[in-house]
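SEQUENCE AND FOLD
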Amino acid sequence: MRGLVVVGTLLAMGYGLNVSGFSGMASGFVGGVGIGSGAIIMRGEEATGVARGGLVRLTQRLGGASAVIGVILGLSVGGWEHGWIWGSLGFGGGAMLGFGAFVVMRARGAHEGVRFGEANDGQEMPKTFDLTDPQDVLKLDRIREEYGALLADESNPYNKSLYRPTSILPYPKPVIRNALETLLDVAEERKSSPYIDFAGKSEFAAETIRSTLIMLDDFLDVPPDQLPTEPRANVRIGAQFRRESGDTRRFTDWQS
């Protein structure tokens, strides 16, 4: 499809130049690239950075579709003379709509305890991962990617909290631990895979994975309504839950 986008963009630019000079050529470029790239994202083609499944994929594709509609509307309003301005605004607005949908749906899912990776693509995760199977490696990467996105999500109400409920994890806690420990085995050269390359950055990759494993310990099997998000209260209540459950990993008696 990328070839068709290039050809279509060149034709649109040529027609726009003939109709309205350089402004028309710019409008043709914006129209071709905006509609083409939006359509590619909407289709979820490989090598576009679109997630392989779950909520992220859904909202990214929604953003692609919205961007296409935005460009078309922009070109309709601005014509060949000013279409490049309105088309650019339409593309940006459509992309932001997709991002906004992601934020809203993610927040709603976190509130309701939805596990996005499990609930939205219906693909069961294996208990062990075969590093010679490219599909298992893709699953490993997806788990790592979605868990990392959760940790970096500043819109999450627990973003500044030490302890978080397991209900907001994209996959069950044991699945994430198993995936990270498998990747750590590769990074520390206890295992190998033809589909994973940590060459030149093994120690950095291993340290990153170890850090995220430590953070995984701080996800507690606690109902969200019983675990406050305010940092000091979160530490106090979370430590109490840990003490009562007998989990002493990384435990500090914050009340002493």
Remarks:
- The longest strand covers residues 164-165.
- Strands lie at 164-165, 219-220.
- Residues 41 and 47 are 10 Å apart (CA to CA).
